[in-house]
Design a protein that fits this description.
Layout lengths: L6 E4 L5 E5 L3 E8 L4 E6 L8 E4 L1 E2 L3 E6 L6 E10 L6 E3 L6 E6 L13 E8 L2 E7 L8 E5 L4 E8 L3 E7 L11 E8 L2 E9 L4 E5 L4 E6 L7 E8 L4 H16 L17 E4 L1 H4 L5 H13 L4 E6 L4 E4 L2 E7 L7 H12 L5 E7 L17 E5 L5 E5 L2 H14 L4 E5 L12 H19 L4 E3 L5 H5 L9 E4 L11 H12 L7 E4 L10 H9 L5 E3 L8 H5 L2 E3 L5 E3 L7 E2 L1 H5 L9 E8 L6 E8 L6 E6 L9 E7 L6 E4 L19 E6 L4 E8 L1 E3 L2 E8 L9 E6 L3 E5 L6 E5 L5 E4 L2 E2 L6 E3 L5 E4 L14 E6 L1
Parallel strand pairs: 2-10, 21-22, 21-32, 22-25, 25-28, 28-29, 29-30, 30-31
Antiparallel strand pairs: 1-3, 3-7, 4-5, 4-8, 6-7, 8-9, 8-10, 11-12, 12-20, 13-19, 14-15, 14-16, 16-17, 17-20, 18-19, 23-24, 26-27, 33-34, 35-36, 36-37, 37-42, 38-41, 39-40, 39-42, 43-44, 44-47, 45-46, 46-52, 47-51, 48-49, 48-52, 50-51
Helix pairs in contact: 5-6
């Protein structure tokens, strides 16, 4: 057997695929040469090993029905040959890919005789049970054994972060792990276990012999619950969202619904000083960065002055103003000079810790706020104050007067490490004071960092005026090669926690870096803020401009998804950091006042060997045909028309109605790939789809509205040098903002693929006052 990188199989030979009876198993293969390729598998009624032959035109595809197969474990491998040569085998001896077929069963929810059943609800296809923990001293309580097929858990990483761990049929016994969320697949069900408490701690841990233990601290102020939700569908995001809503409505008794507004800051590209300078930031270095951004025409609109600007002593804040040695004129003069000298900077933010600095507030500085000292679990002396409301009122009033528009508040979870009994109430008093003063002086604009911890997520104290930005994972570490794939994976899984009030921040990145595009593509579809942390004059300008588009009246801003992406089933339950599969995410964009939906799928290869990502028709898209277009990666420019429910590989001829339902893309080791999906509209013999700005990472979000009548009209919020459409017939004329474009010069149509590309930059911006750009295509 051999590992042949010119030939790649999906699912990978080291993977374990879980599917239900009646589902079709999709296998894809890419080869750089012409081969005869067969899947060798026991996916048969009698589990006899037979050959299933792939068919090929562009790529190799194979669909195997599981309708007639019994539940259980199956295996597969691959063999291939050229012409009459002997067969060669793919992979390693006795290392076959695995398939587990689960039965079609009705939903079942685990019973917990160790706990008190308080409530039971059926919500659509989901069953939810609410259990209360007994007030006994002999916790933890063993909740029994689980026979899962695959699982993922979000565990506490220190006091400020959550991070995912995944696995298959066996838990690794570790009583030190604190699981704050457990999601697992068992037979035909997906189960969610969520321990919740309002003023104390609660968590799960893997016990011996694949059991789960329930830990909690006794509190007279609030009860501890375990919420268990189950479903037979694969919509685990709905499972988590519904369970969190139940906790809010029936345990916290918060039934009001708030329509959260979007944050204007999200529309703009930002810059942060942290990875460029760390704590050594000063006025000279800050202005070097701004000069570099200006001279390279990088369309940054906001700046974050991160850790290092404050006046401190022994890791405690000693003043509200900036360090006099680093910023001689003080914070107000610095910000004033920034906004006058660099008019492209619309807003400036500063960093601080929730309790002031890493070890709190200096005793002399804090005497007016009832200063006192406590010890944390590492025996550090932390300077706290008894009147955080007065402190935050004066602090944020000072920042506002200095011209500061927002704050990044770090180290929010560390109150859990304090060696005091009332740490939760002290913690919440700081949080409440911060929010109230931010609402009054900073329009509520806070970037919450080191706050990904259960008490904050389950008991949020947030702005009531707009959504709140929350860091979604630990930091971007530019010098730690092994951290980059993990960063994408952690962010992908932590999106499970997102609620309508929260916007996930995937952290800054550097545009000139070995993993720059790896990070940029993830930020493009993250739905959160996009900001860079480049060293002066070390920019990848071409990469940066793939994240932004030009508007009619507001310059360049980011092409942003309106919500957090969803991780694919294989990413959640396939354990991609250990198994041979890509990290997969997708996000959706909906036209204004229209049912048409566009998708963007992303794949990140966490290992050194080339892998395949597979794009299939999503349940979030309409039932019509669609065009899949590779926006970035090794196969950039690849175009495939997708059908729904037809797995035969047919001709990709643009007039053919028997198109495949999947597209496979090769993703090189430690690289990424984005694929856009656009729904096809048809009228008579004309079929057309808008692909958006294909020279951008997330260009379909620029599509505001499309209309197919006598001509096809598309309205876009942004423009670029390459706007694209798929059309099954050659256009006669293309018009942009009322101006007829020259065929062959300003637009071209490919007869083989149906791809129409046009340059939107040739028409002046001021030709109309409309906010949108109008493309009209006459057939």
């Amino acid at each position: 057997m051999t590992r042949n990188q010119s030939l790649i199989l999906y699912p990978g030979i080291h993977s374990r695929t879980i599917t239900k009876q009646n589902n079709e198993l999709i296998f894809c293969c890419q080869a750089e040469q012409e081969y005869t390729i067969e899947l060798w598998s026991n996916l048969t009624v009698q589990k006899n090993w037979i050959a299933f032959q792939f068919t090929r035109l562009q790529d190799y595809h194979l669909a195997i029905s599981t309708q007639h197969l019994k539940p259980g474990d199956y295996e597969f491998t691959l063999r291939f040959k050229k012409g009459n040569e002997p067969w060669s085998w793919y992979g390693s001896p006795n290392k076959n890919g695995q398939v587990y077929i689960v039965p079609l069963l009705s939903v079942t929810t685990p019973v917990m005789p160790q706990l008190f059943l308080m409530a039971e609800k059926v919500i659509e296809s989901m069953h939810l049970r609410c259990f209360k923990a007994p007030l006994i001293q002999n916790a933890p309580i063993s909740l029994g054994k689980i026979d899962q097929d695959a699982y993922v858990a979000c565990i506490k990483k220190g006091s400020c972060w959550l991070t995912p761990i995944g696995g298959m049929t066996k838990f690794k016994h570790d009583t030190n792990q604190q699981w704050q969320l457990l999601l697992y697949k068992e037979q035909g069900n997906i189960h969610l276990w969520l321990p919740v408490a309002q003023t104390s701690e609660a968590w799960l841990s893997p016990g011996i012999n694949n059991t789960v233990d329930f830990h909690y601290s006794l509190s007279k102020a609030s009860e501890t619950h375990l919420l268990i939700a189950s479903t037979t569908t694969d919509n685990f995001y709905h499972l988590v969202e519904t369970t969190l809503n139940y906790y809010k409505q029936f345990i916290k008794k918060q039934s009001e619904k708030i329509e959260y507004k979007n944050i204007p800051m999200l529309q703009n590209l930002g810059y942060c000083t942290w990875n460029a300078f760390g704590k050594s930031i000063d006025k000279e270095k800050l202005f070097d960065s701004l000069n570099s951004l200006q001279s390279n025409n990088i369309p940054v609109r906001y700046v974050i002055i991160d850790d290092g600007w404050q006046e401190t002593s022994y890791e405690r804040i000693t003043s509200m103003d900036a360090c006099k040695e680093k910023f001689p004129g003080g914070l107000k003069e610095t910000v004033s000079e920034i906004k006058s000298k660099y008019p492209f900077v619309e807003s400036v933010g500063v960093w601080h810790a929730l309790w002031g600095y890493w070890n709190g507030i200096d005793e002399t500085f804090g005497k007016d706020y009832d200063h006192y000292s406590v010890t944390d679990s590492k025996k550090n002396k932390i300077g706290l104050i008894g009147n955080p409301k007065k402190f935050y009122y004066e602090f944020y009033s000072f920042l506002s007067d200095a011209g500061i528009d927002f704050v990044k508040v770090d180290n929010q979870g560390s109150f859990q490490d304090l060696m005091i009994k009332d740490k939760i109430s002290v913690w919440d008093s700081y949080r409440q004071a911060m929010i109230e003063s931010a609402e009054q002086f900073l329009k509520g604009n806070i970037v919450h960092s080191m706050a990904l911890t259960p008490h904050i997520l389950l008991n949020p104290i947030l702005s009531q005026n707009h959504k709140s930005i929350f860091r979604n994972s630990d930091d971007f570490f530019p010098n730690e090669d092994e951290s980059h794939a993990w960063h994408i994976y952690a962010n992908a899984l932590n999106t499970l926690w997102k609620t309508p009030a929260l916007v996930g921040d995937w952290d800054m990145f550097q545009s000139r870096h070995l993993f720059a595009e790896y990070h940029a593509t993830s930020r493009a579809i993250s739905g959160g803020p996009i900001y860079i942390t480049d060293i002066p004059n070390e920019h990848n300008i071409k990469l940066i401009y793939k994240l932004v588009g030009q508007t009619r009246h507001c310059g360049y801003n980011v092409l942003l998804s309106k919500q957090s992406p969803h991780a694919t089933f294989d990413t959640v339950f396939g354990n991609p950091m250990e198994k041979e599969c890509v990290i997969g995410l997708y996000n959706l964009h909906r036209e204004k006042d229209n049912e048409l939906v566009y998708g963007v799928c992303g794949f990140w290869n966490p290992g050194p060997h080339d892998l395949l990502g597979v794009v299939a028709r999503s349940k979030g898209l309409s039932m019509a045909q669609a065009i899949a277009y590779v926006v970035s990666g090794q196969e950039k420019g690849k175009l495939v028309r997708l059908n729904l429910g037809n797995n035969d590989v047919q001709s990709i001829d643009i007039t053919d109605n028997n198109a495949p339902c999947v597209m496979s893309v090769r993703v090189k080791g430690f690289e990424s790939c984005l694929v856009s999906i656009s729904t096809i509209q048809s009228l008579g013999n004309t079929s057309v789809a808008c692909l958006g700005l294909i020279d951008k990472f997330n260009g379909t979000v620029s599509i505001s509205q499309t209309i197919l009548q006598q001509c096809y009209e598309a309205y876009l919020t942004h423009r670029s040098s390459c706007c694209a459409f798929w059309i099954n017939t050659k256009p006669n004329q293309v018009v942009l903002d009322g101006q007829i474009l020259d065929p062959g010069v300003n637009w071209k149509w490919d007869n083989n693929t149906g791809l129409l590309q046009l340059d939107m930059m040739v028409v002046p911006l001021d030709i109309t006052t409309s906010d949108t750009f109008c493309v009209q295509i006459y057939m």
